[in-house]
Structures are given as structure tokens and as C-alpha cells.
Design a protein that fits this description.
single chain; mainly alpha; 13 helices
Length: 350
């Protein structure tokens, strides 16, 4: 087999492996959230399908496939069908550049646990993350329902507002690390735990955390749904597997957002005070893979914790926070970071 063929095969194996793991974690994240909600509300949560409710995910999947399909009479049929698929795919494409681990040996070849290590990884993240809103807006408009349209408009304005703040936080991070590659950013955070960007960029982390909550449309930023205001928001008219794709896309987005937080600010797959070995091995690769998902799951728990403890913002509060608080704070953070780098001779804080 040619060298190009070997590379394609290796990347295909890594992509399938990561995709299967991601789907399994996302599927059981739905069960985990219901269990956590039950804990906070002093009840059991799903506990009938299988031991401790572990088969509830299978039951939900069967239910989505078996439920009746419904398309409103005056809806734009093709856009109505395409919208949830587009949202799910846009969320899934984000996993291509995230380093899920360091390196692993496959058939005597050293392979990165990352589908594509491109030198513009952060720009790719910003570009693809902004595409998900098109599926939501299209679904809201194609439904020919005023509540759905309002949810789609809210989602569009919310994404525009908070992507600016998120981009400003990333600019400060890039100034320090000097690269757009997510793998390089992780490598810059190896060694001592205080090398993690959360300690060198605390303000940027807070801005990015709030912005990523808004980008994921999770409580307290779930204005596109807002059940007590808009019935169900952009997915009011959706049922069966189309609604399932919207819901699944939300959890994929939450999982990828948690992985980004772990990658950019908490060292990604790196282990504090443990040096990266010169030669890769199977066990080192699996260990870094497990460390990455442990950090990611902690942030996923944070998403769920916030959902069941904080109330939803009013729409004016949402806009004020984005435009009058986070964006000015992000600009100040960039200026301060630039002055620090100038003072230290451009060596950065890592």
C-alpha cells in the first residue's frame, strides 16, 4: 500500500473510533442529564428501562424512530426536512480538529488521536460553529410558525452577539501561544499545572465560558427555545426523528464545547507534572484519551448543573451581557495581554 493510502487508512480508523466514542458519550449524556435533574429535584430519574435506567437511551431511540412524522401544511417541505440534519452535521464537523489524545501506535505507525491537525484549527472552529445557527434559523422559518420563527431569529442574534466575545477571548489566547493549532496549544500547556491557560488567562476563560454557553443555547441562554414563552421555539413543529436530530445536535454541540474548554484552558489531554514521552505507545495514547474525556465530562456536568440551578435570562439581559459587558471586557483583555507580552519581550506567559 502506498504512503498516501496508509495515511488515509490510519485517519479513517481514528475518525471512526472517535466518532463511535463521541456518539456513545452523547447518547448517554441525555440519560446523565435526566439523572442529574432527578438528583437536584429529589427524585430518581429514568430507572425502568434496564438496570438503573441504562437502557433508557435505547428506548428513546426506538421511540423517535417509531413516532409519527408530521410536517405542517404550509411549511417549506424541503427546508423543513434539511434543517435538523444540517444542525447535527455542523456540530459533528467540529470534532475534526480537536486533539482527543496525544499519539498511539497502530501497526507500528505513530498516529495522532486527532482527525486533522491543521495550523488554522481555531479559525476552523469559529467558522464551523457559526454554521449551526443556519439549521436552527432555517427550521424556524420553514415551519411557517410565528413561535418557531421568533426562536430562529433569537438564535441568529444570540450567535452573532456572543461569537464576537468568544473570538476576542481566542485572540488573547493566540497572542500568548503564537499558534492557531489546537495540538500546539495543548503542548504549550504540558508540564506544571500552572501552565494551563486557565491560570494565565482567567479573564479570557470566563469570557469564553459564558460565550460557549450562549453558543450552545443552554440555560441560562436557551432563548431560542424558551418553552414558557415560545412553546418550543424553533423546533415547535418538529416531531419524531427530526426533533431527535435537533436534540442530538444540541448534545453534540455541548460535548464539543466541553472538549474545547478542556483543550484551550485545561491542558487538553496533558497530565499535570507528567512529561510527554519521546516515543508513543498504546498505553500512553489510551491514557491521554481517557484524561481528555475525564476533563470533558467534568465540563459537561457543569453544563447540566447550571441548567438545573439557574433561571433563564430575559432577552434584553442576554443582549446587554454580550454587547455591554463581554465585548468591552474582551477588548480590554487583549490590550492587557499585548502589554504583558511587550513587557516580557514577546515570550508569552507559557
Amino acid at each position: 500500500m502506498s504512503e498516501i493510502g496508509i495515511i488515509i487508512l490510519e485517519k479513517s480508523i481514528v475518525a471512526v473510533f472517535i466518532f463511535v466514542v463521541l456518539l456513545a458519550i452523547v447518547a448517554y449524556a441525555t440519560l446523565g442529564e435526566r439523572k442529574i435533574a432527578g438528583f437536584f429535584q429529589d427524585r430518581h430519574g429514568p430507572n425502568r428501562a434496564g438496570y438503573w435506567g441504562l437502557l433508557q437511551v435505547v428506548a428513546d431511540g426506538v421511540k423517535f424512530f417509531m413516532k409519527e412524522e408530521f410536517i405542517p401544511d404550509r411549511a417549506n417541505k424541503w427546508l423543513f426536512i434539511i434543517a435538523p440534519t444540517f444542525t447535527f452535521m455542523a456540530a459533528g464537523f467540529l470534532m475534526a480538529v480537536i486533539p482527543f489524545g496525544d499519539r498511539i501506535m497502530i501497526g507500528g505507525h505513530e498516529v495522532l488521536l486527532q482527525i486533522a491537525d491543521i495550523n488554522i484549527g481555531l479559525l476552523y472552529i469559529l467558522a464551523i460553529s457559526s454554521l449551526g445557527v443556519y439549521g436552527i434559523f432555517t427550521g424556524g422559518w420553514a415551519s411557517n410558525n410565528k413561535y418557531s420563527l421568533m426562536g430562529g431569529l433569537r438564535s441568529a442574534s444570540q450567535t452573532i452577539s456572543y461569537e464576537i466575545a468568544m473570538g476576542l477571548a481566542i485572540i488573547a489566547l493566540v497572542l500568548d501561544h503564537g499558534t492557531f493549532s489546537l495540538r500546539e496549544i495543548v503542548l504549550n500547556q504540558t508540564g506544571a499545572i500552572w501552565n494551563w491557560s486557565v491560570f494565565t488567562h482567567p479573564v479570557g476563560f470566563i469570557i469564553f465560558l459564558v460565550a460557549i454557553f450562549a453558543e450552545s443555547a443552554r440555560v441560562p441562554f436557551d432563548l431560542p427555545e424558551a418553552e414558557n414563552e415560545l412553546v418550543g421555539g424553533f423546533h415547535t413543529e418538529y416531531s419524531s426523528m427530526k426533533f431527535g436530530l435537533f436534540m442530538f445536535g444540541e448534545y453534540v454541540h455541548m460535548t464539543i464545547a466541553s472538549g474545547l474548554l478542556a483543550t484551550l484552558y485545561f491542558g487538553g489531554w496533558s497530565i499535570p507534572f507528567v512529561a510527554v514521552p519521546v516515543e508513543a505507545s498504546l498505553w500512553w495514547g489510551l491514557l491521554t484519551f481517557a484524561v481528555f474525556w475525564a476533563k470533558t465530562l467534568l465540563f459537561m456536568f457543569l453544563f447540566m448543573w447550571v441548567r438545573w440551578t439557574l433561571p433563564r435570562f430575559r432577552y434584553d439581559q442576554l443582549m446587554n451581557l454580550g454587547w455591554k459587558r463581554l465585548i468591552p471586557l474582551g477588548l480590554i483583555n487583549i490590550v492587557v495581554m499585548a502589554l504583558i507580552l511587550l513587557w516580557t519581550g514577546g515570550a508569552g506567559m507559557n
